[in-house]
Design a protein that fits this description.
This protein is an alpha+beta fold and about 325 residues long. It folds into 2 domains: about 100 residues, Beta Barrel (OB fold (Dihydrolipoamide Acetyltransferase, E2P)); about 180 residues, Hypothetical protein af1432 (Orthogonal Bundle). Helices cover about 40% and strands about 20% of the residues. The chain is built from 12 helices and 9 strands.
C-alpha cells in the first residue's frame, strides 16, 4: 500500500486529515444561495462518514466514480451531532492502491467458508425430511453469493458476508432457546431462520466486496414477496407438502411483524413469533456492537439512525 491515511474511526473534530476511503454515495445539491455542492458518503473498514465538496458542479460530480478508493484531504467538522468532512482536495487513488480495496471493506469476523459449514451443520439437524430438502435446495441455489453478500445495503450486517453472519448467529440463538422452551419445533425455527432473508440475494445486487445496491425487483417487490415466491416455486418442484410450504411462506411474510415494515400478517404460530424476535435481537446486538466498538468507556456514540437517532452509551465497567 503506497498511501496510509487516517481511518474513519480515528477522525477527530477540528483536525485536518489525509485519508483514503471508498466513495459509496454522491448527490449533487444546491445551497440556499443556489451554489452547487456534492454530498458524499465515504467508508472504510472502520466506519462511514459524510462529506461535502463545496462549489463543485455537474462536471466534477460526473467525474466521481462510486465504489472506488479516493485520496482525501479534508477538515473534520461536526454537523447535527455527526462528524463531517469538508473536502479541500480529492483525487482517485492510484491503480496500485486500488488493488487493496478489499482491505477497506468491513467484513464478518468469521471466515465465510467456516460460517457456511456451520450453517449446513444446522441444516443436517432438521429431522423433517421435506423441510430439510426444501431448505437445502434454497441454500444450494444461492451458495456462491452467500459467501460474500451483505444482509442489507446500509443497516444491520451491511458488511461482506454479513448475511451469513446474521443467519449463523440467529441459528445459534434458536438452539439455545430450545434448551429453555422444550415446546419449540426446531425444524420450523431453523428453516425459518435460514430462509427468512435469503431473498436479500436478489433484492440486492452485490459485488464480491459486499458493496450493494437495490435491484429493480428489490425496489418493486422486496425480499419478503420474493422469498415467498421462491419457496413456493422450490416447494412445487420438489413435491413438498402444501402445509410445509404454507408455514414457511407465513414465516417469511410475518417476520417484519408490522404492516409499515412490510409484513401483511403478524405471526400466527410460535416459531414464526420467535423468528421475528430472534431477528430483532441479532440486529440490535449488531447495531450496539458496531456503533460502540470505537467508543471509549463512559462515553456516548453519535446518534444512531436505525435506533431512532438515540445516542448509545458504553458503560464504564
Amino acid at each position: 500500500m503506497r498511501f496510509v491515511g487516517v481511518p474513519i474511526s480515528d477522525l477527530k473534530q477540528g483536525e485536518t486529515i489525509n485519508g483514503i476511503y471508498i466513495l459509496r454515495k454522491k448527490e449533487l445539491k444546491e445551497t440556499s444561495s443556489k451554489k452547487p455542492y456534492i454530498d458524499i458518503l465515504f467508508s472504510d473498514n472502520s466506519g462511514e462518514v459524510q462529506a461535502k465538496l463545496w462549489d463543485a458542479g455537474e462536471e466534477v460530480y460526473n467525474g466521481l466514480q462510486l465504489n472506488v478508493l479516493y485520496y482525501v484531504n479534508a477538515k473534520v467538522d461536526c454537523f447535527k451531532d455527526l462528524l463531517q468532512l469538508n473536502i479541500n482536495k480529492i483525487r482517485i487513488a492510484d491503480p496500485e492502491d486500488q488493488k487493496e480495496i478489499g482491505n477497506f471493506v468491513p467484513s464478518a469476523p468469521i471466515p465465510a467458508e467456516e460460517m457456511l459449514d456451520e450453517i449446513y451443520g444446522y441444516v443436517s439437524r432438521i429431522s423433517n425430511h421435506d423441510i430439510r430438502r426444501l431448505v437445502q435446495k434454497l441454500l444450494k441455489d444461492k451458495e456462491e453469493q452467500l459467501l460474500y453478500y451483505p444482509a442489507a445495503k446500509s443497516l444491520h450486517h451491511s458488511i461482506r458476508s454479513g448475511l451469513l453472519y446474521h443467519l449463523l448467529r440467529m441459528l445459534r440463538l434458536s438452539e439455545k432457546l430450545k434448551e429453555v422452551y422444550a415446546e419449540i419445533n426446531l425444524d420450523l425455527l431453523y428453516a425459518g431462520v435460514l430462509i427468512h432473508d435469503l431473498s436479500k440475494i436478489g433484492e440486492l445486487e452485490s459485488n464480491e466486496l459486499g458493496i450493494s445496491e437495490y435491484s429493480k425487483e428489490g425496489q418493486l417487490l422486496g425480499h419478503l414477496i420474493m422469498g415467498i415466491c421462491e419457496v413456493e416455486k422450490a416447494g412445487e418442484e420438489l413435491g413438498i407438502p402444501e402445509e410445509i410450504i404454507l408455514l414457511l411462506k407465513h414465516m417469511i411474510a410475518s417476520h417484519h411483524y408490522e404492516p409499515e415494515y412490510g409484513s401483511p400478517k403478524k405471526p400466527m404460530f410460535l416459531e414464526a413469533e420467535l423468528l421475528h424476535f430472534i431477528d430483532i435481537i441479532d440486529a440490535r446486538v449488531y447495531d450496539y456492537e458496531n456503533h460502540l466498538k470505537n467508543i471509549e468507556k463512559g462515553n456516548f456514540s453519535d446518534p444512531v439512525w436505525s435506533l431512532d437517532r438515540r445516542k448509545l452509551y458504553k458503560p464504564d465497567l
